[in-house]
From TrEMBL:
Gene3D superfamilies: alpha/beta hydrolase (3.40.50.1820). Transmembrane segments: none annotated. GO terms for molecular function: hydrolase activity. Residues 10-222 form the AB hydrolase-1 domain. The keyword Acetylation does not apply. This is Alpha/beta hydrolase. Keywords: Hydrolase. InterPro entries: AB_hydrolase_1, AB_hydrolase_fold, Sec-Metab_Biosynth_Hydrolase. It comes from the Bacteria.
Amino acid sequence: MSENVQPRNIVLVHGGFVDGSGWQGVHDRLSKDGYRVSIVQNPTLSLEGDVAATHQILDALDGPAVLVGHSYGGAVISEAGNHEKVAGLVYIAAFAPDKGESVSTLIADPAPGAPVPPILPPRDGFLFLDRDKFAASFAADIPADLAAFMADSQVPWGVDALNGAVSRPAWRVKPAWYLVASDDRMIPPPAQRAMAERAGARTVETPGSHSVYVSQPGAVADLIKLATGR
């Protein structure tokens, strides 16, 4: 990126079962470094709705932005990243679907021996994780009381969001970065590496659970800063 287009805007998009509050550690570090950080509170009812919520934030910005997604948020940024203000994409232990793919299709055929996320059967069109297995699968490296709170405060994840297919993957036309969480038990690390390679993403790897954006905010913020070119 040339000097005059290096973005100072960062837009953070959360994934399924959680809200945007988990980004606080990343937000605080980037804000202290002079970035303007926005957090999308995407409803996770449908991919279309979450892309619209992300565009609402992008529309209000005064210049280019780096768009960051965790987990299902990677599907959101893959579609929303086509917005004219998005200069680059950062995937944090995230899905990076290609054209016609959804989170549902990406998890449909797990590799032998891969951990299976404890997703309960749909209830009225929404998904939850088994509360008793939440910490081990989603948040193994954060304090037990915080993991328990996250389990008890789950945001219902709409089946329509899970099934939402990406139509124009922005990573095909814009630069991408990817942080692989090497201890993830929701999205297996080999799957993360494969998606990162397919997207041509500049990739780093750090020990961490699926909640690496909570447990390792410094590593996440460092990759985002790298993506801004600053």
